[in-house]
Amino acid sequence: MPALPDPEEHIEADGRHDRAALWLAKRAGGSLTPAEAAEMEAWLNAEPANRRAFDEMRVLWARLDEPARNLAARRRPARLMGAALFRPRSALSAMAVAGLACLGLWLVDPHFVEDWQADAVSGGALVSTVTLPDGSVARLAPDTALSWTFDEQQRHVWLLRGEAFFDVVPGSSPAFTVTSRGDGIRVVGTAFNVEQFSAANAVTVAHGAVRVTGARDLPSVLLSPGEQIRIEDGRPGQAGTADLDAALSWMSGRLVVQQRPVGEVTQELGRYLRGRVVVRSGLGGRRVSGSFPLDDPSGSLDTLAAAISARALHLPLMTVIY
């Protein structure tokens, strides 16, 4: 396995990214003078690492640009007020202010809307247990949010984000249903795990049986004990045999993966951190195997990065794999 990154190099990289972020803020806000523009170009050309840091921060900025534009369009009075407050003492435009505000909100609480809608939101504990109105039990990974409706017509839980293991009261009616991004999991009495990724849902059955229906209303798939399925773009894939020990290892304090995409593994580890994990383009699709302790997510990200000959840069409220 490659050696872990040198801490001194991390410190130096932190400074590069901070400076790159400053150049970007000045350029986006229109306050970059000709002399500063020349200074920026000289800095970029001084070392390849400077340009890499600038490009990485530019990618992050681009990811936040569209939300900033939407916010500015919806909040025109606030935008005008911001322009008045910051003129002429600050050359940052209202768009740059909105972008910085979105960046701060995204870093501190990127899920505030989901949390407002939820009936249960897990904290930083490795496993949080929630008893549902019918007596069924949901075990939640960190950074997981659920909402539900229980009445005479339905027992319906929405997985707004994260991962949860459901132990459903057997023999009860109406049928118990979990929905994750429009994909439905319908059961009568069973125990199963649902995990939400950025582009898919994964369902694993420990015992009992569940029927999975994609958001596109394609034919449903019946899962038996020990089976797993992924649902991508509302389309259920083929059911396959699950490694239950690996799939449910998060409840024992470890993340066990076999040839999983780095993007998914970092998303799972990111639930155990305060802040975001950003993976450089091109690295997220690589596959990795291993067992990572969840009580030290920063160390696990260092190990993961080293395993793919990359580095983990730990910033306040953000970790960048590059």
UniProtKB/TrEMBL annotation:
UniProt xrefs under Pfam families: DUF4880, FecR
Protein name: Histidine kinase
Residues of the FecR N-terminal domain: 18-58
Domain of life: Bacteria
Single annotated GO MF: kinase activity
Signal sequence residues: none
Annotated FecR protein domain residues: 129-211
Key words, A-Z: Kinase, Transferase
This protein's record includes keyword Kinase: yes
Keyword rRNA processing: no
Annotated organism of origin: Ancylobacter dichloromethanicus
InterPro entries with a match to the protein in the record: FecR (IPR006860), FecR_N (IPR032623), Ferrdict_sens_TM (IPR012373)
